[in-house]
Write a structure and sequence with these properties.
Distance between the termini: 93 Å
Helix content: 10-25%
Radius of gyration: 27 Å
Order of helices and strands: EEEEEEEEHH
Number of helices: 2
């Protein structure tokens, strides 16, 4: 077993449209490499900063994430012969960690990121942030069946 603690710079487009790892920021790796019969088992944690847009209030925010990774890199003589197989392989003495890191990080990101757990979001009627509005913020709700009534009253008064 060999322990590797290192940093690498984040590649471009690592994330989703709502939340992503900024390009070029350091990604912290704390990995264990273990030789097994089929290849090299890579396990450990990956930590990185995040930038995103809150799915409730649409404000930008920054966060950090730590995800676990556990991937088996097959020796070339033990790899599958199927050309459609996307298993990871040991090439010489090197491992290409980017596909495994990309999968672990992107799958670990929230589908609906929030700037904070208690974010109230936006008002459905006026679009203002509910956190900035008072508790008495309301909008007059008119039943659509009665919506034409005020115009009929105005027309009658003009006659």
């Amino acid at each position: 077993m060999k322990r590797v603690v290192t940093q690498l710079l984040a590649p471009a487009e690592l994330g989703t449209p709502m939340i992503h790892v900024p390009s070029g920021v350091p990604i912290e790796l704390d990995l264990r490499l273990e030789a097994v019969m089929e290849g090299v088992l890579v396990s450990g944690t990956v930590s990185t900063p995040l930038e995103g847009e809150c799915s409730r209030c649409l404000d930008s925010f920054e966060d950090e994430t730590t995800v676990e990774i556990r991937e088996l890199f097959y020796y070339q003589d033990r790899a599958f012969d199927d050309p459609d197989d996307d298993s990871l392989q040991v090439v010489g003495d090197h491992l290409d960690l980017e596909p495994a890191l990309r999968d672990a990080l992107v799958l670990g990101l929230p589908l609906s990121p929030c700037c904070r757990p208690d974010c109230a979001g936006l008002c459905a009627d006026c679009g203002a942030r509910l956190d900035e509005l008072g508790p008495d913020h309301t909008h007059a709700q008119v039943d659509p069946r009665w919506a034409a009534l005020p115009s009929l009253i105005e027309n009658k008064e003009k006659d």
